[in-house]
Amino acid sequence: MDIIENLVLGGLSAIGFSLITNAPRRAARIIGITGALSWTVFYILKNYSHMNILIANYIGAVIISALAYFFARRYRLPENIIVIPCLVNLVPGGNAYRTILYMVQNNYSGSINQGLQTFLIASFLAIGLFTTPYVAATIKRLKMLKRTGRKL
């Protein structure tokens, strides 16, 4: 039941943020599916598989990127319309808040620790978002080279 709850809430939060960013209404279903799947996979990996939060965020970002790549071409939408609302679920806002909180409380070692973790999570999200387009472009280039008969 916990997984179904996270699936629904992940989709609804992505759709809600898409309303704030004025995404087209025809993209709401796509954004909901992408947000729900990415958040649920992240949640399962983090809480049930006890995977490192960095790797769980990376895999969640790769799912967002892959689904956005697919849906953007299928429904002729810009990828950013799908990616941005779905990525909000994975952004480390709580960690950023704790970084500043510890700094205000003069707990500098805690602030540095939280700040580093926030930076790493954001970095893994960025790397995950760029993985799918890079792999897709590489595959496309290899197919083109194979078709033309040229070698790398």
From TrEMBL:
Q: What is this protein called?
A: Threonine/Serine exporter ThrE domain-containing protein
Q: Quote the cellular component terms of the Gene Ontology held in the record.
A: plasma membrane
Please state the protein's primary subcellular location. membrane
**Domain Threonine/Serine exporter ThrE stretches:** 11-131
Alphabetical UniProt keywords: Cell inner membrane, Cell membrane, Membrane, Transmembrane, Transmembrane helix
Which species expresses this protein natively? Answer: Companilactobacillus versmoldensis DSM 14857 = KCTC 3814
Q: List residues traversing the bilayer.
A: 27-45, 51-72, 81-104, 116-137
User: Which family does the record assign?
Assistant: Belongs to the ThrE exporter (TC 2.A.79) family.
Q: How does it sit in the membrane?
A: Multi-pass membrane protein
Q: Does the keyword Repressor apply?
A: no
Q: Which Pfam families match?
A: ThrE_2
Q: Where in the cell is it found?
A: Cell membrane
Q: Which BP terms from GO are recorded?
A: succinate transport
Q: Which domain of life is it from?
A: Bacteria
Answer yes or no on keyword RNA-binding. no
